[in-house]
Amino acid sequence: MRIISNIPVKTSFSSGQYKLNPLNNHPSDSFTSSTNQGTNENEKKEPKAKSKLQILKSFFRTKRLEHLGVSGYIAQNIAQYNDERYKKSLELLKSGVYEECIHDVSLLEGKRYEQALDLVGQNILTEKLHDLANLEEDDYKKVIEFKNNGLTIENINLFIKLSSSEREKAFQLMQKGLTPKTAAYLAKLNQNEQDCMQQLMSQNFCAEIAFRLAKMSPEQREKCINLHNKGISEDEIIGISELDEDNSLRLDELIAMNIGDENIKEFAMFTEDKYSKAIQLFKEGVLPEYISDIIDIENGELERPEYFEYRENGFSRSLAFSLSLLDNHELQEFKKLAKLNPKMRELYSEEYDVNLIKKQDSRISEVIFSKEIRCDNGTQITFVKTFDEDGNSTVSRTEEYKNHSTSSILKGQSDVFRLKYDKFGEIREMSQIIQDSKNHSVTGVIHTKASEKLKGAFESTYYDINDFKTDNGSIEGSVDFDIEDSVKNKGTTLSKVIEMPDGTILYEENFKTENVLTNRNYQEKKDDNGNVIYSSYSYKILDKNDVLMDIKREYIRNADGSVVNKINGVEYTLKYDDETKEVTISDGNTEKVIDFKSKISKYSTDVIWNLIKNLHADTLYTLSNNIEQWAFCDDEDAVADGYAGILNSGSNLNVIMHETGHFKSYENEKIFSNKEFLDTYTEEMNKFLNTVPFNEQEFVQYFSPRADLNGSTGISEFFAESNIILSNYGTAHNKLNTRSQFLVRNFPRTIAKAAELLEKTSKESILT
Known about the structure:
Layout: H1 52-67, H2 72-79, H3 83-94, H4 102-105, H5 110-121, H6 129-133, H7 137-148, H8 153-160, H9 164-175, H10 180-187, H11 191-202, H12 207-214, H13 218-229, H14 234-241, H15 245-248, H16 251-256, H17 261-268, H18 272-283, H19 288-298, H20 305-312, H21 317-324, H22 328-340, E1 353-358, E2 364-374, E3 380-388, E4 393-400, E5 405-411, E6 415-421, E7 427-435, E8 442-450, E9 458-464, H23 483-486, E10 492-499, E11 505-513, E12 516-526, E13 532-543, E14 546-557, E15 563-567, E16 570-577, E17 582-586, E18 591-595, H24 605-612, H25 617-626, E19 629-632, E20 639-641, E21 646-649, H26 653-667, H27 675-691, H28 694-697, H29 715-725, H30 737-746, H31 748-757
Parallel strand pairs: 19-21
Antiparallel strand pairs: 1-2, 2-3, 3-4, 4-5, 5-6, 6-7, 7-8, 8-9, 9-10, 10-11, 11-12, 12-13, 13-14, 14-15, 15-16, 16-17, 17-18, 20-21
């Protein structure tokens, strides 16, 4: 797992409208403009100059687009459109169309453009908007039909490509509880292929890859599976397996070099000269994802004059290329931070990549430098150095090993983290080695393991350094992964999971962050079919003697299928009508009947109704007030759209709880202007980002100011995730379960504030 795997690399080239300022003669100096190199006018003809009016129009258009939140290079391109196309682009942007789609959609004419506007008007906003709008009339009508009957946008394209018989087969599979994506793929296969695909999915291959593998010959499929067993990701195995015999001869060499599976196919297909050069650059530390473009630039096959200007001034190849991708605004912001942080210049000659963290006003708040060293034994060492607008800096060093374990340290801070991961990139085991901040001597260890009894829960023990000492004062054993063998029957339990003789699971946690104590207790019992028939959850946060938050919840399923749900002392009875798909919620004084039949997607009625029968009263009440349509999809595609009243969710109840948190923020948009909540979030987030190594920050990145690294909106996602944490012990989802624990243990005050805004602490009935 690369620690910066979620950071997108810019792939767009500078439009050339603004010339980037080159650097002066030493990489440790500040940026300055270079003098004209005296190019002979007869050697190269310049394009016809634009009029002042054209330049001004382009300038003001760009500024207006940037004010609308359009990225710099996209704004510059749109500003060059003719008047009619520019007007259409503004119309599309204000309607919410993704800026990346504007280029293609604004080219549509007549009926096709009308279809695009119709799709936008029905809130069908997708990266595939151009493709959907460009369909023939019959297929276009199917898009509307599928959307109205609850298929999510991500799956509409799959269903359009099915024959009528395949489509009917897919709908039948969905009624049995399969997600639309899985059902659509299975419907295209014969019985043997279906069995193969389902077997591969049971081995945790995603639906699309399992489908493609099932369609292969047994020999080709075995080749792909062997590549996967060698550590190649499922996203890359098919492409690599398709290499011809000449190129595949390089395969073992590239795997042994640990060049990164996402780069193997590209490197294997290079010409002999380019391959030799690429291997040389890789051994010199150049980032592998940049190597191909760098070779093309240096060979004159790709024009990037800024790259050579940076190189002449002492910048490394990786950094020169990375900076050459920045637009003019980003470069100017980079310069400002370079002036505030003189130590940034010490990195210019080393093979670092650079990523910029932007605020909503497009100012750069942080620069992240990252550099990798990939060892022949499979170990990958990553250095990450960050510099922010306040002049602060951190240095993080992480070693990642072939057995999915890592060791991370943040220079200048007190703790070292050693971790093991599972195949989903989630933590299986962690030793947080605590040191004295002054002399860096070890004072103790917090050892954490993912529970085998309760998915998504973590068991932790604190060991004082004295637990490791023998009579002669030496430290016995290791403070690494074998820690429990060294300190049996010692330590202080912070969290534990116990399974009772009747099958009831108990989870207890007492964790202190500075002066704030978090106390959580969870009980759960399931029937023989795996359905929860009893659960209780208490969550208390104390700052010294002050109670910041106190929550108590209980859920009891009766023999007749009805539910008693107690929330902070208020008791609700929930009854379900399987025919009418109605839920009746009563608090003893007031009764509310919720008609879900009209809200549930036609193609996923049964599976969603079963989900509804497992939700708590406050979740059902929030959903009933906010959704008009609820459709079934993969958990990874889940989305809540409060303005359109749409919920797309999978079968994981915690994912539904997250989306419900979004609906709560739609109900009260002032939440994100609540000063106390924002200040608390900022304080605890800054501390986390400055005291935890970069590798471990990835678990909280989705909820942080660095959220633009992977496309989320930071604090709004934190708020939505809090809705899970305040209702359940954690997220029992293969790819998400670690992050709940990081939030609980590092953001107690923020969660307490979120609880108030989510009304989780209320002792009043939701029906009053």
